[in-house]
Design goal:
The complex is a heterodimer of chains A (511) and B (297). Chain A contains 18 helices and 20 strands. Chain A is of the alpha/beta class and 511 residues long. In chain A, the strands form four sheets. In chain A, strands 6-7-8-3-9-10 form a six-stranded mixed β-sheet, sandwiched between helices. Chain B is built from eleven helices and four strands, in the order ααααβββααααβααα. Classes of the chains: A alpha/beta (511), B mainly alpha (297). The complex binds adenosine-5'-triphosphate (ATP) and magnesium ion. Magnesium ion binds next to helix 2 of chain A.
Chain lengths: 511, 297
Amino acid sequence: MSSIGQENNFSVEMEDIVLRFPGVLANDHVNFTLKRGEIHALLGENGAGKSTLMNVLSGLYRPESGTIKINGKTIIFNSPKDAIASGIGMVHQHFMLVPTLTVTENILLGLDEPKFIMNLPKYNSKIGELQEKYGLKVDPTAKIWQLSVGEQQRVEILKMLYRGVDILILDEPTAVLAPQEIEDLMETMSALVAQGKSIIFISHKLNEVQQVADRLTVLRKGKVTAEGIPVEGLTRTQLAELMVGREVIFRIEKHHKEPGEVVLKVSNLSAENSRGLPAVKDVSFTIREGEILGIAGVAGNGQSELVEAITGLRPCTGSICINGQEVANQSPRAGMKCGMAHIPEDRTGVGTAPNISITGNAIMKNYRQEPISNGWRINYPAADEHASGLKDLYDIQAPSVNTQARKLSGGNLQKLILAREISCDPKLIVAMQPTRGLDVGAIESIQNLLLEQRSNGAAILLLSEELEELFELSDRIAVIYEGELVGQLDADQADLNTVGMMMTGSLRSDE
Amino acid sequence: MTFDSFLQNLANGISLGSLYALIAIGYTMVYGILRLINFAHGDLVMLGSYFAFYGVSMFFLPWWAAFIFAIAVTAGVGVVMEKVAYRPLREFPRINLFTAAVAVSFLLENLAIVIFGGRPKAFSRPPFLDKMLNIGSITFVSYTPIIIGVSLVLFVGLILIINHTKAGTAMRALSKDIETTGLMGVNTNKIIMFAFLLGSCLAAVGGILWAIKFPQINPLMGVMPGLKAFVAAVLGGIGNVGGAMIGGLLLGIVEIMLVAFFPSLSGYRDAFSFSILILLLLFRPTGIMGEVQPEKV
Ligand SMILES: Nc1ncnc2c1ncn2[C@@H]1O[C@H](COP(=O)(O)OP(=O)(O)OP(=O)(O)O)[C@@H](O)[C@H]1O
Ligand SMILES: [Mg+2]
């Protein structure tokens, strides 16, 4: 017997993996290795093929060619169940949980044990023990819909640990988390590794990668550009360059611009959330031409409701004037007619119709205009032409404009939304989390697009949880806390500390 | 109307309502998971009563064995129906499934006419179900409490299965999100088959009890109960098992009471049931227990 198997300290070796979607080579002869007990970061631009590669490793896709070795043994997975049996579990970008079932029921679903009767109290305590061990706090009897996103993620991780996996794949786990939750997750990851698990960690946030990862692999357009290199010693600029293949300037050019006329005037706006509780309380502000107002705040402090009220998606009290025209409590189209563009937080639910084509999504706002409209019907050749124009101009990566929107990667989907909204020459842009989940290159181009619109005289309302982004882009920064605006500052006078304190409610300043 | 006759009518209403409920559950379970209104479900009721009839008259089985035989064979038909007619169409637009359901319904009805004959047959009750009972001053036939009792046991059993077994949990999960549940490692085919199995068993029991209550069976006898049970399922909130029980009971009681209070309106009984449905849907489109579900694009 050879001793190679014993010496081998790789728990995963993927060799020469090829996977093709219609029109896209998502994984082009990819090699990837994972050492036992390490945190391995997988980086790459949007659409580089990271999720696809991990879906291959977790048994969801069968590669066209290539081999997968687990602990030195070649294995073929036919389903995620096979992968889990080999100790590989994946937490997806979109959670796989049933909202109406409890935590425990979700964890037990699809397992062979229990066979028939669900003895929930017994399993609740079993899961409790697991939680103790890894410090993943969440109430096992709660229903999923009652949990925050961070807690749902813990359920996903628990689900995998309960199945006894040794190798955990986390696909952009931090994209949906608030800063405190990110800290907790980082601690959990360290705890898991300390207990002998290995982790593959996909992220676009380079500081997180530097904080936790041991080694990293970079994909670009389906190919490996850096394979398993140590993270230590790499600078952020080098990391970014590996990902996008060119230098990324983290400082964006913002020119001084004298704001013009008032475009958006919101006065005494209040709105309730979906449970009927007050979520936006007596908010007033204005935005002028060529001005970006950034709104900072911890997620869940009324940002979504504020945006929905302004864009006509949620009933409210108070007044919302766009260029002097009252639009409060009117249809979203009323706002659009006044030149409002909306880049929503929820890309697939609100921003696009995932099951229809790029063309269909691209013409959603201007399907009534010549030449796309032919009076009473849609001129599809003209619509396709319009969509291809946007696709080229905004560099949306997709096989064709007839591709369904849901097949786009996160970054390309966001570019499609921006293209649609900006091509209408907006006077006012309401953007919520416009760069969430995007790679550094895409972030740069989207930020530049917003600044370009500012130079063209658009007024922009920007809501983001990334303070750095807010500080870089905004002319003024307002802080929202429990539905109230607790302070408005000029961006060049604001400092991180003050804004941070306002976000947690420990400071307020009324101009 | 005296209090006694009110009680008597209430008992009748509950027994009719239980039958509606038994049948409605099958509609609602299948709808909950596949978003399919299984038009052929009413015909399973008919098959249940015919198989019981032949079990006794052709195979000379004792009544209880004939009933078990009937339930088993009907369940088999239900499972085959799912596997042959519905499973291959699951990935296609919903309209194909609906069309298939209508076709299966016509197929079963016409097969029944050819095989069992179009002429109605007399269903003979086991003797102990034919007795008159007196409790105080109210009189009823012994099958009334049996129908209510059997239904109650089945309702409780079903609720236990749905809430406390693995398959039941998987069924609840499937009705929320079939794709995700499949990816979580649940064998969706098996669970959908299980749902059809349960629904067909209940339909068969409903058919046998129906034939005991109205002892004349014919190949189209499932149509009206099926339609009423569908109304009951929608009343209760289609997709919701508890709702189907409540909707069935409500419909049965209201129908019987209508006839009891306004005997001259008895001819309009069916029109009345459907009017209730329309009225309720105007004010509460999701039914009594239904929840609002955002439509997936
Ligand atoms: N189901 C699918 N059908 C067709 N094409 C797909 C499918 N899933 C992904 N793709 C395409 O494969 C490529 C790789 O996608 P993948 O989701 O792996 O990217 P990613 O690196 O995870 O990006 P992101 O950072 O945006 O999540 C993209 O071009 C995408 O459009
Ligand atoms: Mg991805």
